[in-house]
Amino acid sequence: MNKNFRLFGIAAAASALLTAGGVLAIGSGAEANRDRAAKPTVVLVHGAFADSSGWSEVTRRLRDDGYPVVAAANPLRGVSSDAASVRAFLESIDGPIVLVGHSYGGSVISTAATGDPDVKALVFVAAFSPEQGESAFDLSSKFPGSTLGETLTTVGLPDGNVDLYVDQKRFPDQFAADVPKKDAALMAVAQRPVTAAALNEGAGEPAWHTIPSYQLIAEADKNIPARVQHFMADRAHAVTESVKGASHAVFVSRPGPTAAFIERAARETA
User: Of 5, 11, 120, 137, which sees the most CB atoms within 10 A?
Assistant: First the structure.
């Protein structure tokens, strides 16, 4: 065997090894992509006096763990119309969904998900999970402890409805007491109003009757008292986790536990 032939053989063997390695690498990447694609899409729905930006740190953690995440804009105009908007958003998503709602967003997701076979779990984050006909106002006043009403300011609308805001000076203590003050002040400026009609509108047929539900309870919540959250969780036979000292903005102040709880719902209902 001459030298040139031996060199050709070595080069060919090396090329084969590199090619095999490339195939293995491609296979590993494909497998990772399949794992990511197999995970449900997490849909995040904000509530009153907030917007989707509040989910930023939760979103980052979920995406780092391979979950597709999208945030639905909640119009905050009325339970039935808001639920119809979110339902249309859900119908644009292929595959299984874990639907997450904060505060008033809980009323919206429960109505929106009814009868949707793609929604595998409902996660209520310091949120309302109403029975049919119950309003956010009904539930928040069911037990003492909510101080939200005394912090609200109003703006009259041309159609005769009223928009509600939390007074900016009182927002940090009322809504986000465990969020750094400078961040809570920015949240107060960026808050989106909810109509008074929305908070007084009864919810539709509740999806938590048929879809597994998970309730993350903020134990220091001044908007929806923890006792109300426990009542709703018990009634729905929800998987429950409490966050001691957490304000109504638990998804902002405690993004790690919030994301972990959402992932638990995803795993257990896969």
Answer: 120
